[in-house]
Amino acid sequence: MSAKSSPHAGRRALITGVTGQDGSYLSEFLIEQGYQVFGVVRRSSSENFERLEGVRERMTLLHADLLDQSSLNRAMAVAQPHEVYNLAAQSFVPTSWSEPVLTAQFTAIGVTRVLEAVRQMAPEARFYQASSSEMFGKVHETPQRESTPFHPRSPYGVAKAYGHYITVNYRESYGMHASSGILFNHESPRRGLEFVTRKITHGVARIATGHDKVLRLGNLDAKRDWGFAGDYVRAMWLMLQQDQPDDYVVATGETHTVEECCDVAFRRVGLDWRQHVQLDPAFVRPAEVDLLLGDASKAEAKLGWKPTVSFRQLIEMMVDADVAALEAKGAHKRS
Ligand code: NAP
Ligand code: F7E
Question: What's the whole-model pTM score?
Answer without folding.
Answer: 0.97
